[in-house]
Amino acid sequence: MNSNPHAPGFPANPPQKEGWQLVFQEEFEGTAFDERKFLPYGLAHWYGPGENEAAYELRDSCLVLQLPDAQKRISAVATGMRDGLHRFWEQLELRRHVRPAMNLVTKYGYFELRAKVAKGSGINSAWWMIGFENQLQQNAEVDIFEVLGKDTHVMNSTLHALRDPKLKYEHQPYRAETDLSGGFHVYGFEWDENGMAFYLDNQKIWQTNQSPDYPMVTLLQINESDGGWVGELDPAVPYPKEFAVDYFRVYKREGMPMELFPAETAQEGENLARSAVAGSGTDIVWGDLYEAKSHICALNDGNPDTCVLSKPGIPAPHMYYLDWMEPKSFNTVRFTLASDCHCEWAVEVSANGLDGWIQVTDQRSALKEPDSGSGHLVYKAKFPIVKGAKALRLIVKSVAEAPQGYRIADLAVFMA
């Protein structure tokens, strides 16, 4: 495929846009992939190491996402990620902990992409966004476009409400006069508190008054399958199959939230866990997209009535994570077990959330006491002040008399 950004199609827009401030951009001009903007993988926590990494080239000032052969069915990049995000299939299980990233996890703005989609039945070129799920219901999906290779005149735009009760499903296929795989085209997405609008080559093609009111992550991907919505896989289409992106830009106008990712809101003396991103290893029992009754956001939401349920049959130790974007100092950890079971546990901290884990608790000095009125058990440990930690993990070594799993109601971190 010729990914030349000067190929026939629609010309690139200038970076500046009247009435808007450019707050994020990736022009793909360099020779190296910039992981401070996009992550070289998609929903990595549902896959083993190496299974979900993107295949790509940086060519002709473009990111060219590739399916190099029949064994690679998806290549995706994302502006942010966290454990458990977007459980799109009921059989999915959390395979590993991946430290969260928030290069661009934002709410509202004008988003613009110039791209050349792939042609051929069985292929899908997509630009989509998903809620970051800081709360259980914040998981809507917005497909700005999905262009199926079996009919590259049609731009499919869709809102999937999923668990968000304030939204409803909405889908709009738009038939373009031109073959969108024949050259580069400019796709736009405008989003504010009043609704969303979708653009092709600077022309608004449809709008809705529905609007997710929480930060979302952006993904770019090419994927293929054999049958279903994308069509039967055409064996005559050669590999590599490619989806080329010339640039990606984000704009904000006056009055919109300007931050690129959610601010850490915990103040001095408050529960620092509330400003962390919660995660887990393979230890959580997950609901589906529509009824995730054991969701990782319940781990640090400060609400003892919401619980994370451990997965039966996975031998201890089990690990639960809190990750901060900025270093923290603290000396107290408290977690609430929503059952009357004895628990052996420990806490480790890391300066980067990746390695160098240091145990800070002494089980002999940990306290256990009942939570009045709830029947929960509260475990608490105080230790010398930890400074400069960007991650904490709770290690559950054993829980007595809990063959069907145990429930963690809350995990809290303080400077006391």
TrEMBL record:
Domain GH16: 8-256
A Pfam family it matches: Glyco_hydro_16
Highest taxon above the source species: Bacteria
InterPro entries on file: Beta-glucanase-like, ConA-like_dom_sf, Galactose-bd-like_sf, Glycosyl_Hydrlase_16
Family matches, as SUPFAM superfamilies: Concanavalin A-like lectins/glucanases, Galactose-binding domain-like
PROSITE patterns on file: GH16_2
Annotated family: Belongs to the glycosyl hydrolase 16 family.
Protein name: GH16 domain-containing protein
Originating organism: Paenibacillus cookii
Lineage, top ranks: Bacteria, Bacillati, Bacillota, Bacilli, Bacillales
